[in-house]
Amino acid sequence: MDDNYSADEKPIADSPALRVYAMPADTNPRGDVFGGWLMSQMDLASGTFARYIADNRVVTVKAETTFLKAVEVGDDISIYCHVARIGNTSITVDIECWAKRLRAKRMIKVNEGIYTFVAISDDGIPQPIAKDLHAPE
Ligand SMILES: CC(C)(COP(=O)(O)OP(=O)(O)OC[C@H]1O[C@@H](n2cnc3c(N)ncnc32)[C@H](O)[C@@H]1OP(=O)(O)O)[C@@H](O)C(=O)NCCC(=O)NCCS
Q1: Closest CA to 119 of 130, 111, 108
Q2: How many angstroms does the Cα of residue 36 sit away from the middle of ligand 1?
């Protein structure tokens, strides 16, 4: 990351695992973007990422999330995923959610999460993950 950015800012060029707009339909009755909406986007982004790394069907077994700043309608949300750990049948993914507001030059970090997935067979039995299949960065 560019040294000119603080810990809660990010250059816009980095490639996310998922990018999505927060829409009016994603709000709670107070008009704030619903936290559960963001968690589902994080599950989708990191689940797709884990499926690629494991090269297998995966299920979410654990989701830890910290809401750092409120998401606003119209925010352009980028979700970044990195491998935190590969176990025997599980993969733990570090997730960061960043929001770009209209005409902003920088993104702000709105959420961090750690989600764990387990590779499973078609009948739901945990399957070993080949660690050298897709080496984490
Ligand atoms: C995921 C699931 C198949 C694991 O079954 P299980 O009998 O607990 O399997 P195991 O005890 O052999 O554990 C398998 C792996 O999951 C990990 N695991 C299980 N429970 C966990 C938890 N609460 N947190 C973190 N990791 C967990 C184990 O550490 C193990 O990892 P490792 O092989 O890398 O060491 C089963 O719990 C399940 O089907 N859960 C429901 C998943 C689901 O419906 N998700 C929502 C929709 S995707």
Answers
A1: 130
A2: 22
Determine if ligand 1 sits within 6 Å of the CB of residue 61: yes
Distance of CA 128 from the midpoint of ligand 1 (Å): 12
How many CA within 13 A on the CB side of residue 128? 4
CATH code given to domain 18-120? 3.10.129.10
118 CB under 6 A from ligand 1? Answer: yes
Locate the ligand 1 atom nearest the alpha carbon of residue 125 and give its number: 3
Question: In 13-130, which ranges are continuous DSSP H helix?
Answer: 35-54
Measure the CA angle with vertex 86, ends 84 and 89; round to 5°: 140
Beta strands in the chain, from DSSP E residues, in sequence order = 9-10, 18-21, 58-67, 76-86, 90-100, 107-119
pTM for the whole thing?
0.90
Sequential pLDDT tens for the chain (137 residues): 445 667 777 655 568 999 999 999 999 888 889 999 999 999 999 999 999 999 999 999 999 999 999 999 999 999 999 999 999 999 999 999 999 999 999 999 999 999 999 999 999 999 999 877 655 44
